[in-house]
Design brief:
Number of strands: 9
Number of domains: 3
Strand order of the largest sheet: 2-3-4-1-5
Number of helices: 18
CATH architecture of the largest domain: 3-Layer(aba) Sandwich
CATH topology of the largest domain: Rossmann fold
Strand content: 5-15%
Distance between the termini: 56 Å
Length: about 400
Amino acid sequence: MNQPSENADVFGAKEKLLGDLGWQENPFVKDLRIYDRESFLRYYCPLDGGKVLERLAFDAKACMLVGPKGVGKTSALYFAYYNLPGSEFDTIMLKQPAADLTALAEELGLRKGESALDGLFSAIGGLWGAKKPKRTVSRQELVEFLRGRGRKLAVFVDEAHLAADPGMYMEFKYLLDEVPNLRIVFSALSREGFPDSLVQLVGENNVFARKGFSREEMLEIIAHRIASVGGKETHPFSRGALDEILTEQNLLTPRYVFDELNGRLAEMALGKRKLAHESVRLGHDDELVKAAVASSREASGAAGKLTKIHADWWVALSPSQQSIMQLLLEGGDGLTLAEVCKSVSLAENTAFNALYQLRGDDKRELERKKDVPFPLVEVKARMVGGRKKNMYYVAEKVRNLFTVN
C-alpha cells in the first residue's frame, strides 16, 4: 500500500489556512470556469465586462475589446454573455470567426435542408467516390433569416483576429448594417486587420483597449475574489505585501498577481510567513481590533503615538480636521458630535463643518485636496441610552494606514 508522502501535508496545511481565513476555497484560481455560470459570475470582477453589458443594454450595435493575452477579454465576453436578459436577447458564443459565410450561417442557426439530389449523392458517394455538392448560403439568405428571428441576437466573437478569410470582417459589417436586431461583440489582440468601416461602425466609444491594470483596479479584483469565497477586503495580505506584489510587470494581468498571492498563501500555510495583523480588515466593534489597540497603548503609554508613514496627505488637512482625525483614530468606538466638540474644544459649527468635509461631502474640499483619499470619516446611526444618535468613525480603508505605537 502506498504511504502518503510528507509533501501531502501541504494539502492539510492549505485546508487549515483556508479554514482559519474563513474561505470556502482558494479564490485565486486562474481558470474562471467560464462553463459554470454560477461560479464564473461569483468570481469575475466586472470591469470591462460591465462596460460591454452597459453598451448592449443601451442598444449599441457592436463592441470591441482589444488587448494582449491574459488581460481578461474572453472573461469580459462571458460576463456580458451570461448577463444579457433571456427575455430580450438570444446569445451565441463563437470561439473564433467562422471560415466563411456558409459556416457562419450554420453557427447562427440557419440549416439548409437536404435535397433529393443531396440524398442520392450521399447514398452512392461511398461506392463511386462522388462528392456531395457544397450548398452555400448567400448573404441575403442569412440577412432574411436573422431578420425573421424577431428577437435581438447578440453574437460574441472571441479571438476575432484569427479570421482565416479577412473578407469575413466585411461580412460582419454588412450584417450589422442590414439586420436591425443583430448585435456583435468582438475580442481581438488589436485593431490591426479590421477594416476601418467596421471599426467606425462599432464606434470609438464602444472600443475598449486594455493593456494592463491600475493598482486600484487590481486591488478591486483581489478584494472581489476574496469576498467571493467568504473573506473580507484584502485580508490576509498586508499593505506592504501588496505594494511588493503590485509591480508594473504584475499589473499587466491578474494571472501574474494571482501567482504571487498563491505563493504567499503557501508560505503562510507552511509557517514560512506570518499573517500581518495590520492587514486585517475588521469592523470598529470587533473585539480583536479593540484588544490590539489597547495592547499597543499599554505598551507605549496612555497617549500613544499615531504613525502616519502611509499618510503623506495628512499635512493637507486643516488643524480642526487633524484634531478630529487624531481623536477618532485613538478612540475607535465612535463618537457623537457633542463628544467630538468636547474632546477637541471646537465649536459645534466648526466641528460639524470639519466632519462634513472629512466625510467627502464637500465638493469644493474634494477639488482643493485631490491627494487626500476622502472619505476619511463615516457616520453610523446607533442606539445610545435608548435614543438613536449619529456616531462618527474613521473609515476602515483609512484606519489601516495608521498604527499606534
